Amino acid sequence: MLNNFIPLDWVFIAGILLSFFILVLTFDAFPGEKQGGTLKLQCAYSVSRLSLFFAKYLTFLVLITLTFLLGIVICLATISLASAFQVVLPSVGQLIAVLLVALGYFSVFILLGLLFSSITEKPATSLAYSLFTWMMLVIFIPSGMAMLGEKIRPIPSAFKHTERVKATVKEINDNAPSEAKTYFPPGYYGGQAYPHMDVRKKMIDEIEAVSNEYKVIRFNDQLRQAKMAVSMGKISPYVLFRNISECIAQNGLQDFENDFAMVVSHRLVLHDFIEYKDSEDPGSLHFVSSLHPETYSSAPVNFEEIPVLTETRQKPLAVLEDAAMDIGLLILFNLVFLIVGWNGFVRYDVR
Questions:
Q1: How far apart are CA 5 and CA 12, in angstroms?
Q2: 139-155 pLDDT, tens per residue?
Q3: How far is Cα 128 from Cα 109, in angstroms, rounded to an integer?
Q4: According to DSSP H, which parts of 83-196 are helical?
Q5: Are 31 and 115 in contact (CB under 8 A)?
Q6: What pTM does this model have?
Q7: Taking Cα atoms as reference points, which of 143, 120, 125 lies closest to residue 16?
Q8: For 225, what's the count of Cα atoms within 13 Å in the CB-facing half-sphere?
Q9: Measured between alpha carbons, how far is 20 from 24 in angstroms, rounded to an integer?
């Protein structure tokens, strides 16, 4: 039944929805109470402004954290109904780490809301500033940096890439001997060797090598473009939060690049294994070609002998080292908004 529901992206929920919810809660923290007259009464007692400021900060932080935790607990409880679900220690550690990062991200927007609340006289003005800043930090900057990255580091379109591959394949085909261009449909072999099959196989192998090379080139071009967009987008707390979370979960751009390299490497290992098993079959023509599967061995292979692609994952400390810069920038956002917001509240006219 769970397959009928859209998967929940809690990084998206925390990064987009809850950050917006925070600003809706905090925009009138001081102007609202000022208009109601309660802020003047609070400051008239022996309660310091520092205590009042951090009391509001901690109240909002606890409230939004409990909301976030409640959603995750309900989600995990629902998933746990599936028999295949297992909670392992590394996953628990990753979840706790993401929760801690989420606290830092929530803190940024709480301090941002308190900042605008402490420099404006009217709740409507504070709300306008908060919503505009939220749109810039969460919506426009991440998407805008992606578009800017495409402009700064342009790459050929998929159509141009396909046309380039076709042109290279045509060149190889035109320069190949005429014997290599003779195509024999599957099933042609009837106990006799294919005429000029060795020449044709050489051409086919060259075409496949070029095609695979172009795939890797296009992947690297797209990856560099994406990395540039992410690097420029780090002026947004949302980009930082997503990057750190992906780094902890090990499913970000760097991990995708590592996985792609492992797949490319394993493909060569698997090809060597096929050729090795084919060489053991005396009845095979030993022409391992993707276009002519009948020319190499079809003898059964022990499943246990097939090379297995094993994923390698970084150790927790290595993951934290990779995310250290982003964590530092997220802390810097908190410090800047805290200092500016606190200075604004110190000078705030509560009358």
A1: 16
A2: 898 888 878 877 888 88
A3: 15
A4: 89-119, 123-134, 141-152, 158-175
A5: no
A6: 0.79
A7: 143
A8: 18
A9: 6
